[in-house]
Amino acid sequence: MNFPTELRYTKDHEWISIEGNVATIGITDFAQQELGDIVFVDINTVGRALNAEEIFGTVEAVKTVSDLFLPVSGTILEINQLLDNKPELVNTDPYGDGWMVKITVTNTADIEGLLDAAAYTNLVS
């Protein structure tokens, strides 16, 4: 499995990439493998301010629906529109075209509580 070292991770299997005060968020390679074939991504929180660990949407696989949790507090800026017609991008490119949302980070202290790649690898091993 692939866990890029430049990203941070949650115990709920989301990843986050931060540039300035904007963060891109998706689910990890481990999460997409555990879920199986993704058939639908439901995120309707654009413009909403949410706290860390709040649900920002759901992802539906063939046999299950799973909540998506925000790794850090912020306001949802953008949803990946590619996932409307190609939810399978979450499976094929979870750290690239399969990203889910972009947010404005409102509490940078939340970042300190996230896992680095080594800690996340230990969590899922």
> Mean pLDDT, rounded to whole units?
97
Instruction: Please give the order of strands in the largest beta sheet.
Output: 1-2-3-9-8-5
The CATH topology name reads: OB fold (Dihydrolipoamide Acetyltransferase, E2P)
Q: What is the CATH superfamily?
A: RNA polymerase II/Efflux pump adaptor protein, barrel-sandwich hybrid domain
Strand fraction equals: 35-45%
Which structural class do the helices and strands define?
alpha+beta
CATH architecture: Beta Barrel
Percent helix range: 10-25%
Low-pLDDT stretches = none
Structure annotation, total helices: 4
Number of discrete domains? 1
Explain what the structure shows.
The protein is built from 4 helices and 9 strands. It has a single domain (8-108), classed as RNA polymerase II/Efflux pump adaptor protein, barrel-sandwich hybrid domain (OB fold (Dihydrolipoamide Acetyltransferase, E2P), Beta Barrel), CATH 2.40.50. The strands form 2 sheets. The protein has a 6-stranded antiparallel sheet with strand order 1-2-3-9-8-5. A 3-stranded antiparallel sheet has the order 4-6-7. The chain is 18% helix and 35% strand. It has 125 residues and is α+β, with helices and mostly antiparallel strands. The mean pLDDT is 97. The longest helix is centred in the last third of the chain and has 8 residues, at 117-124.
Gist?
The chain is an alpha+beta fold and 125 residues long.
Features:
OB fold (Dihydrolipoamide Acetyltransferase, E2P), six-stranded antiparallel β-sheet, globular, three-stranded antiparallel β-sheet, 125 residues, 9 strands, alpha+beta
